[in-house]
Design a protein that fits this description.
The protein is built from 4 helices and no strands. The protein is mainly alpha-helical and about 120 residues long. Helix 2 packs antiparallel against helix 3 and helix 3 packs antiparallel against helix 4 (about 85-115). The protein is elongated.
Length: about 120
C-alpha cells in the first residue's frame, strides 16, 4: 500500500509540473533561460562548485514561480474578482519571484563573466 501511495503522490506532483508548464508563460520563460544557462555551463565546462550555484539558482527560480502560480490560482479560485487584499498577496508572491530571479542573475554573472572574459 505504501508503494501505491508514493506513486500517487508523484503522479500529482508531475501533473502539477505539467500544468504549470502548460499554463504559465513566465514559467516557460524561466525554463528557457534555465536551458540556456545549462547549455552555457556545458560549453564553458563549469566546475562542481559553479554547477552547484547554477543548479540552486535555477531550482530556486522555478520553485518560486510554481509557488507564485499556485497562490495566484488559489486566490482566483476563492474570489475571481480583484480584491485589494488578494492583490497585495499576489504582488508579494510575484515579488518573491522577482527577488529570486535577480539573485539568479547575479549568481549567473558571478559564474559566467570570468569565463567569458577569460579571467
Amino acid at each position: 500500500m505504501k508503494d501505491n501511495q508514493k506513486s500517487i503522490g508523484f503522479k500529482y506532483a508531475w501533473n502539477g509540473i505539467i500544468s504549470v508548464v502548460r499554463s504559465e508563460r513566465n514559467f516557460r520563460i524561466h525554463l528557457l533561460v534555465a536551458i540556456i544557462a545549462i547549455t552555457a555551463g556545458l560549453v564553458m565546462q563549469l566546475n562542481q562548485i559553479e554547477w552547484l550555484f547554477i543548479v540552486v539558482a535555477i531550482g530556486s527560480v522555478l520553485v518560486t514561480e510554481c509557488v507564485n502560480s499556485a497562490i495566484e490560482k488559489m486566490l482566483d479560485y476563492l474570489n475571481p474578482e480583484i480584491h485589494p487584499k488578494a492583490k497585495i498577496v499576489k504582488d508579494m508572491s510575484a515579488g518573491a519571484v522577482l527577488l529570486c530571479s535577480i539573485m539568479a542573475v547575479v549568481i549567473g554573472l558571478i559564474v559566467f563573466i570570468p569565463k567569458i572574459v577569460g579571467i
